[in-house]
Amino acid sequence: TPTVGVLALQGDVREHLAVLESVGARAVTVRRPAELADVDGLVLPGGESTTIDKLLRIFELHELLQARIKEGLPVYGSCAGMILLADRILDGTADQQTVGGMDMVVRRNAFGRQVDSFETDLDFAGISDVGSGGPVRTAFIRAPWVEEAGPDVEVLARIPAVDTQGRSVAAAGRIVAARQGPLLATAFHPEITGDARVHGLFVSMVAGG
Ligand code: GLN
Q1: Distance CA 202, CA 75 (A)
Q2: Closest listed residue to residue 167, CA positions, set 120, 202, 97, 133
Q3: CA of 147: how far to CAs of 10, 46, 72, 178, in Å?
Q4: Which of 142, 145, 189, 193 to mutate to test the pocket of ligand 1 (most atoms within 8 A of CB)?
Q5: ipTM of predicted complex
Q6: Catalytic site residue 119?
Q7: pTM score > 0.90 for this model?
Q8: pLDDT for position 209
Q9: Of 199, 203, 157, 180, nearest to 85 (Cα)?
Q10: What is the CA 174 to chain-centroid distance, rounded?
Q11: What is the reported pLDDT for 115?
Q12: Which of 1, 31, 106, 167 gets the highest tally of CB atoms within 10 A of its CB?
């Protein structure tokens, strides 16, 4: 059973722990360097990327996480976690840093303000097209999007052209899920809509898939 950590400095930690357990991982919280050194994979939860960035440095996890990513640690970043995995960001605060690892530009708060949060169904390569499949139910909460993806970044999901009511969508075509080797990022929160398949994909990546 792979041990998957959830970075527990800020954000929706408990929801990720529960979904990871439901797909067969041993899920543990990570706050200290020794805990980060021990996990087989790590989830960076949603929350506030500026706060998580500061806390990563205060808790002396920033450089260790960068080193573990360079060694090939599988990491899944959701929402604020996607921002942290991006090599470059737009609309960050003046002193905001990322951990990096994925060759992409991510725009913070790209969909607008908190009131512009929404749920939608998405086609997700490797998930919605596998087995009985079907679209992934997702929640976007002050979410980022991927503005530019480098050649090694595999695009897994984009905002569809029309919503479930058939209305056209301003953000149509924006990249909202991507993978680069052992790094996976989604702009949305799959852990709060009861769809465990993104976590299932990540746990299979941790297990060596
Ligand atoms: N807007 C937040 C940020 O910039 C991300 C929101 C989220 O994680 N739900 O970090």
Answers
A1: 8
A2: 120
A3: 25, 19, 24, 12
A4: 142
A5: 0.95
A6: no
A7: yes
A8: 58
A9: 180
A10: 15
A11: 59
A12: 106
Q: What's the per-residue H, E or C state across the chain?
A: CCEEEEECCCCCHHHHHHHHHHCCCEEEEECCHHHHHHCCEEEECCCCHHHHHHHHHHCCCHHHHHHHHHHCCCEEEECHHHHHHEEEEECCCCCCCCCCCEEEEEECCCCCCHHHCEEEEECCCCCCCCCCCCCEEEEECCCCEEEEECCCCEEEEECCCECCCCCECCCCCCEEEEEECCEEEECCEHHHCCCCHHHHHHHHHHCCC
**Averaged pLDDT, 83-102:** 97
**pLDDT-derived band at 166, boundaries 50, 70, 90:** confident
Q: If pLDDT is split at 50, 70 and 90, which confidence band does 114 have?
A: low
* CA 45 to ligand 1: nearest atom: 8
CB atoms within 10 A of CB 116: 15
109 lines ligand 1 (CB under 6 A): yes
Residue found by looking up tokens 């746990």 in the block: 203
* Cα–ligand 1 centroid distance for 143 (angstroms): 6
Known catalytic membership, residue 189: yes
Q: What domains are there in the chain, each with its CATH number? A: 3-206 (3.40.50.880)
